Amino acid sequence: MIRPLPPIPVYYLIEGISAFFWFMLSTAGALYGIQVAHLSPVELVLVGTALEVSALVFEVPTGVLADAVSRRLSVIVGMLIMGIGFMLWGAIPSFGWIIAAQVVWAIGFTFTSGATEAWVADESGQNEIGRTYLRGSQIGYGAGAVGIGAAVLIGGTFGLQWPLLVAGAGHLALAAFLVIVMSERHFTPEPRGERTRRQAYGATFSAGLRLLRGSPVLLTIVSITAIAGAASEAFDRLWEFHLLDHFSFPPALPLIAWFGIINVTALLLGVAAIEVTRRTVRTDTHVGAARSLLGIDATLMVALVVFGLAGNIGLAVTAYLTARMLRRLASPIRLTWINQGLTANVRATVISMDSQADALGQIAGGPLLGWVAGGFGTRVAMVVVSLLLTPALYLYARTLRAHGRDLAEVAEVSETAL
Q1: Which long-range contacts (CB under 8 A, 24 or more apart) does 190-199 make?
Q2: Pick from 52, 186, 268, 280: CA 20 to 30 A from residue 1's CA?
Q3: pTM given for the model
């Protein structure tokens, strides 16, 4: 009989299994949109915009649910809804239905966003939580590499829609599995009752908002997240289109195999980079995190320009791999940064607010860069993506100058937020 497992192994299982199915889906998803649904560059970006608008609308309410009711329940419900959205995505290859699928799976994602990380932080204790996040990212990337291989096999054999359908079914199965193995012992939900629950939602949200307003460091992190979001949407949605539009792949393998090779290489590079960072770079202070992210984003800007302007496929793919590795390396560092000094009562809400900032950035930047790509080409769009990251460099530099205000500032504001 299967019983609840310790929190950190469960967290690693969530990261690994969900990444396996997500990378299976994402490897085939863009090609499915381009070759089966015949979406244009603008439509590809609008699909992402629909996703981010939905995430923006539901991110904070679902984050508050995780803080006031149950993080475990929030994660399980989120996995269930995402599975439904993925299956809808692969079922009907039309622009309208793909938009609808993005809305559904975005709602599911907001239930898990922040809740999973807050759950493992509370259930395991905050000591070394940054290393847990980094290790979880590594496990996710390793499992994702296997998922990419599965996408190539399934998509190449049965059709590009099948990786999406299998990923949806996999998330439904994961939700059922978590009902059995995921426990919640260090979280006390608010008392039942509609009025009390509404008050709990409002109080938790207000506490998180006061914490953001009272902490220049947290406002800096959220602002950087918004900037990164604005720059990321066009890159994420159009990189496959850019390569297909400007270069020819050798005919020895089907396209999904070539993109699978690119994606698995990016994943392996990300795992290696995270391991080096975990062993050699200190990211448990604001200064350490800001210094690391400054170097990452500065290098990322160069890689994006090279990707956009490269004249041969080898250089373009190398630049893409570099950019993707850097972005994956930045994610757990930024997550560790924002967790510094947060108390349990607002952790999931603040992390969700950070995700909301990412959605706002993508909503603002995505359609604009889609218009640039449609009117001037993806080469110009990628250069503009790079330039959008410039304000983030200033914010990192400002954080480094103000190094005296470190963890104590956030902790003090966190304690008084209620």
Answers
A1: 190/68, 190/69, 197/68, 197/69
A2: 186
A3: 0.74
